[in-house]
Amino acid sequence: MALEARPLLWLALWTLAVPARSFGKDADGGWRRPGPGAPAAVTEEEHCTVERRADLSYAEFVQRYAFSRPVILQGLTDNSRFRDLCTRQRLLASFGDSVVRLSTANTYSYQKVDLPFEKYVEQMLHPQDPISMGNDTLYFFGDNNFTEWASLFRHYSPPPFSLLGTTPAYSFGIAGAGSGVPFHWHGPGFSEVIYGRKRWFLYPPEKTPEFHPNKTTLAWLRDTYPALTPSARPLECTIQAGEVLYFPDRWWHATLNLDTSVFISTFLGTEVVAAASAQPTSAPLSGPGGG
Ligand SMILES: O=C(O)CCC(=O)C(=O)O
User: Fold this and answer.
1) This prediction's pTM
2) From the CB of 263, is ligand 1 less than 6 Å away?
3) Which of 70, 113, 214, 252 makes an SS bond possible with 135, Cβ 3.0 to 4.6 Å?
């Protein structure tokens, strides 16, 4: 090739690369938007106390984590196609008119509200009001219509680690910065962040945390967490896009979205419960701790 043609070739390659980079791993999918209300001042923990594993075999998962402690899985699945389908623009184009069911963001998630997905995204997906109670905050997570949203969910690859006698069921959600679910527990499962970041707080089953079921995780972090002695602190870590947290059976957990986040959980329900349901259920198996 003539020497003088090379700069033109580089320019053409660079131009082609720009759109690819803007949809790359760091892009926010259009979910981070300037809007009314300052984002809640929520930050990552000083020290992540949950192990991160990029090389975990199924045998080691079962032996070290499945029944005993949480772990963050890295690089097990490639959900880049699913991620591309979850941009704000694409989800609105595909599902804007679909009715979604919101739950109150308190421990027992008692109340439900149905509204079009577009209305949720355009009017309700804002940073958490720090003084609102959890039972006055609506959260889009679970209760998904798997028939209507099948064209999306069939592109999700769940973590390839199953537990004997359990059946996976998805719960998909999108929520604003500072929102989250207060402490509760249920069966084991995985939670993957697609866009944004999610901070997790976890306690083993025998260590019931100090919390109020109608207070938000944001309020708990502000009011209760700072007074905890080091030994009373939960395990905690912020999950980045593409990472998957595994939580074992009956572990207490609370979540806090640090950004507007898109996320999906894979709950591992026991077969007795799964057999009683014709459709995959979005509701985690919950005990007296809620869920
Ligand atoms: O992702 C969230 O914010 C809630 C997750 C949760 O509480 C759960 O998976 O049980």
Assistant:
1) 0.85
2) yes
3) 214
